[in-house]
Amino acid sequence: MSRRLENLLGALAVGLSDAISSAVETTAGHAGATGAALATLAQEPGLSIEQLRVPLDRTQSATVRVVDQLAAEGYAERRPGRDQRSVAVVLTPKGAEAAARVLASREQALRDALGGLTQGERKSLTGTLEKVLTRITTDRAHADQICRLCDVATCPDRACPVDLAARGREQQVSGRAAEEVIRP
């Protein structure tokens, strides 16, 4: 294996992460999880604090602070959840507009990075990225974290390598659990 390949991939990951973080934070007007919370809630309205915590990879208390900030700025509101104990977080029209800007800024950062590739190179890279994403996805929570800023309409569940890998891992785990129950 080429150590240079790993080195280049690492540099690309850091460079893209920095570019996306900068674009999202500038657009959201806040560092940290605010942009990811806006993007996630735009694509999955009505998540509870606990459900939102997973893709943000934050503690419950840190997620509450993010939601407090979104609510204080008029981007989100709390509504009654599915049961008496939960609260659903829903974006306001102002929050939906901010989320659209966050997703657009992410898309532009990625478009800028890929701008020099030919159609053939883009197709080849797509297949390679699908394989790498499938390999690195460990479980559903990790999948949600990986895709927290994704445009889910662009990569629907049936074609998303991260979602498919998470489902496959879940099936492997449930299959092993069923085998253990069957064994005496």
Report on the biggest sheet.
3 strands, antiparallel
The topology string of helices and strands comes to: HHEHHEEHHHH
- Total of domains: 2
In terms of per-residue confidence, which ranges show pLDDT below 50 for 5 or more consecutive residues? none
By CATH, the architecture of the largest domain is named Orthogonal Bundle
Give the CATH H-level superfamily of the largest domain. Winged helix-like DNA-binding domain superfamily/Winged helix DNA-binding domain
Helical fraction equals 55-70%
What is the CATH C level class of the largest domain, in words? Mainly Alpha
How many E strands? 3
For this structure, the CATH topology of the largest domain is Arc Repressor Mutant, subunit A
Q: What can be said about this structure in brief?
A:
The chain has eight helices and three strands, in the order ααβααββαααα. It is mainly alpha-helical and 184 residues long. α2 packs across α5.
